[in-house]
Q: What sequence folds into this?
C-alpha cells in the first residue's frame, strides 16, 4: 500500500520537478573540454611552457577545474566561489567522481573572488561572463589588478565575453538540448547604466518548465571597455580571440582565433587573453 502511494507520487511529479538544475547547466551551458583545450593550447603557445596551476574564479560546480585535473598528473586547480550550496554540489558530484590522488590536487575556497588570497597560479579563468557582476569601472579594474597579483610572473588571465547588437535587446533565445530545451532570457536591460537581468529556464518534453533556474544581474560591458580596464590594471598585452562561423549553420564553430576587428553581427563570442 505504502509502496503504491510512493509510485503514485513519483509519477505525478513533472520532469521539471525531478531535474537537477546543475546537471542541466553543465549539459547545456558548459563545454569544459573545449574551454580547457583553448586555455591549455593558448597558454603553451604564448609562454612556451606547459601550464600547471589554474585558478577558476566563479567556479560554481568546479566542472572546469575537474577537467583540468583529469588531464595531467601534475595539474593543480584552485577553485573560488562564494556560494556554499553550489560548491557542495560540485564536491559531491564532480570532485566525488575523481580519484583520491586527483582530489588532493584541488584547493577549494568558499570566498569572494575580490577578497580571496591564493598561491601564485599560471592562469586565472573567469568564465561565463561572471566578472560582469562588477558593475563599476573602479571595482572591475581593482578585480583585474588583484587577479594580476595572484598570477605567477608569466601568468595569464582568461576571460570570455559576448556582444553584438542582440546582446542589448530584451529577448528569449531557446536552444534544443538532449531531452530538454535551454532558454536564455535577457529579461531586462537598462541602456542608461548597462545593467541587465538574465535568467536561464529549462523546458521539458512533458510540457513542464523550470523557471529561473539561474538568474544573473550584470552590467553588459563592451569589448573595448574591458580591454581598456585590463590595460589600466597593468596587463602587458591583451589579445582578443573571436569564434569563427560555421558556414552551413551560420552559428559559431567553436574555433577561436586572434582578431583585431569584428563584423557588426547580431552576436559574437570571444575570449580575452591578458598577459601579466
Ligand atoms: C555564471 S556562474 C559561473 C559558473 C562557471 N564558472 C561557468 O563558467 O559556467 C557564476 C558563479 O559565480 C559565483 N559568484 C558570484 N559572485 C561571486 C563573488 N563575488 N565571488 C565568488 N563567486 C561569486 C556564483 O555563486 C556562481 O556560482
A:
Amino acid at each position: 500500500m505504502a509502496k503504491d502511494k510512493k509510485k503514485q507520487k513519483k509519477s505525478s511529479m513533472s520532469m521539471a520537478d525531478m531535474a537537477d538544475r546543475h546537471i542541466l547547466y553543465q549539459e547545456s551551458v558548459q563545454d569544459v573540454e573545449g574551454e580547457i583545450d583553448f586555455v591549455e593550447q593558448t597558454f603553451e603557445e604564448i609562454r612556451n611552457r606547459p601550464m600547471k596551476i589554474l585558478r577558476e574564479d566563479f567556479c560554481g560546480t568546479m566542472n572546469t577545474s575537474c577537467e583540468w585535473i583529469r588531464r595531467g598528473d601534475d595539474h593543480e586547480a584552485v577553485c573560488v566561489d562564494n556560494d556554499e550550496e553550489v560548491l557542495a554540489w560540485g564536491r559531491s558530484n564532480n570532485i566525488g567522481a575523481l580519484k583520491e590522488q586527483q582530489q588532493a590536487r584541488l584547493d577549494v575556497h568558499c570566498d569572494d573572488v575580490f577578497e580571496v588570497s591564493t598561491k601564485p597560479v599560471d592562469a586565472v579563468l573567469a568564465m561565463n561572463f561572471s566578472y560582469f557582476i562588477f558593475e563599476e569601472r573602479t571595482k572591475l579594474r581593482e578585480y583585474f589588478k588583484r587577479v594580476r597579483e595572484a598570477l605567477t610572473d608569466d601568468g595569464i588571465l582568461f576571460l570570455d565575453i559576448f556582444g553584438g547588437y542582440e546582446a542589448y535587446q530584451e529577448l528569449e533565445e531557446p536552444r534544443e538540448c538532449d531531452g530538454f530545451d535551454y532558454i536564455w532570457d535577457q529579461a531586462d536591460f537598462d541602456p542608461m547604466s548597462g545593467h541587465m537581468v538574465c535568467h536561464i529556464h529549462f523546458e521539458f518534453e512533458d510540457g513542464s518548465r523550470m523557471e529561473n533556474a539561474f538568474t544573473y544581474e550584470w552590467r553588459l560591458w563592451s569589448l573595448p571597455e574591458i580591454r581598456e580596464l585590463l590595460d589600466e590594471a597593468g596587463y602587458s598585452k591583451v589579445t582578443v580571440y573571436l569564434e569563427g562561423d560555421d558556414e552551413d549553420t551560420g552559428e559559431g564553430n567553436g574555433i577561436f582565433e586572434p582578431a583585431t576587428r569584428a563584423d557588426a553581427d547580431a552576436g559574437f563570442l570571444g575570449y580575452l587573453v591578458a598577459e601579466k
Q: What stands out?
A: Residues 29-30, 58-60, 80-83, 86, 112-114, 127-128, 130, 133 surround S-adenosylmethionine (CB under 6 Å).
